[in-house]
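Archive entry: two folds, one per protein. Generate the first.
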Amino acid sequence: MLTLLLAPLAVLFAAVSGLRRLAYRRGWLTALSVGVPVIVVGNLTAGGSGKTPLVIWLVNWLHAQGYRPGVVSRGYGGAARGCIEVRPDSPPAEVGDEPLLIHLNTAAPVVVGRDRVAAARTLLARHPGVDVIVSDDGLQHYRLQRDIELAVIDAASGLGNGWPLPAGPLREPRRRLRSVDAVIQVVRGAAQPRSYPPVTSWRADYRAGQAWRLRAPQEKRPLQDLPRRDWLAATGIGRPQGFFDMLDAQGIRFSPRAFADHHAFRPQDLPVDAAVLMTEKDAVKCLGFAGEDWWAVELDVAPETGFIDWLGARLNA
């Protein structure tokens, strides 16, 4: 019923976004090159697809191949205006939780800005050695010319009900997948990949990795080595069920508590004396007031070999 009520707004949203795509396709608006290859990691749906962990994997993989990657991001949820470089001590409330997490997990330079072209130029001006840029999100930011487009789709939720925002989750219609270079399906728990012909599609398995204590981040343990107790699993990500499914797959006993995506955690949100498990994205916002037994769960990202080979070949070409 709600979908039907929102249908007129969805039609309007689709028309506006379609006109914008057409303007770039016809050359009425021009995409701008920044002088180095650009890889866009984005999604068709609003939130929860798992693109940021893939960005982290991709940046670290590029490092291992001898590239010097940098990252641009909108910095969703942050209050920063203009183009801001992310530092290890940057407040998540200023730069956004995802850009901070990317920087902490890759050590790559990260610049946030709503204008991705300006962010990329700022990044290259401050770090002239960067030879490839990864755009965290930005599939719909056509002003930034890109060389490779990767569309990330959660295998469990797919493309939802297939409707555009706000009647459904789609930022662009399904046919947009025909123009991307590859679809990466994020598989968590028992979810199974779907078919998205005719575009090439690969899977990336996301599994719970080690856990580290927020009060002592250098203290890491395999998840299975944590004490057997009833944990409070708390998260503010786009698709919290994905986190809960991964804990289930590890046999962890827990009570789930979901917050809105990008939730700005406050001390009163969680009992300080509880045993808490959370994602690393949540943890970067809780470091200043974490309880003694609050732990962040790392995410192991494992794309299939075919994708890695394909990506290496594309970059070499």
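Generate the second and append.
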Amino acid sequence: MALGVQESAVSRRIRDLEDEIGATLFIRHHAGVCPTYAGHEFVGRARKAINQLSYAMRDVGLIGRAEKGVVRLGIFSSLASGFLAELLQTYSAKHSGVRLEIVEGGPCDHVPAIRQHRLDVAFLTGPPKATDCDALHLWNERVYVAMSKGDALADKEEIAWGDLQGRAFVVSEIPPGPEIYDYLVKHLSDLGRSPDIERQAVYRDTLMQIVAGGRKLTLTSEATIAAQFPGVTYRPLIGETLPFCAIWSPRNDNPAFRRLLSLARVMSRRCAGWPVRKECLDPSSPSGHLDRSPDATSRSPCPSP
């Protein structure tokens, strides 16, 4: 027979099946067999089940090849421009069947979500405090001061910390606002004066409207300055950069995520070969030692693409 099984064995298996379900599926006669009404019903349902199994195998194959699936990302940076924006654009072009689900938040939100596999990867600043997770330093961004276009500091090409002495700042209570607040307190306190920092429960658009009013400043990262706001301009803060890394669970075997991670590594290595601005070079930075993955490679800090 075509299946390589003896006819008698097939007959026994059909009888066993009939005994199990309690109905005769075929009528046997000297010319062969023909299905009963129950047999017609069973064969129709069985064909659908086999088709569903074929569809399942096809879909799982697509997921395994990262032609289909979902990657859940936690972000702490802007997608207006920069490394992360280019990474996601390039990945989407290569894997159009994969849906990217993006969640904004800070480390206190993203790290537990990584551990519980509610996120595949999070992109955060600085060394993550999660020893049970893998991490990879990918890129650096310069720190910028956001100010009113009429501010006296707008005449400068770059801003030093000394230029900010005695100035008032405003930050959001929404991430990354708390991190910016801590960053300001640390550096402004070094100037010997108590920093004037106001915290407000507002999103970025409203925060920039407050800045445009001309009385307060805020800090932002390089990727965000592609988003322009009326009355607001940006100036780089001399010598200040933020390291960004990816963090994920070593037990995460989502094929679509693994393709994203591989692409991020390739783009980071390519970035390391670009001309690097002098102020971005800091080989002593702890961010250069974040990668705890098995195939970790050395990378130089670099500007956003």
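Annotation attached to the second fold: The chain has three domains: 7-64, 69-139+243-289, 141-241. The longest helix spans residues 37-64.
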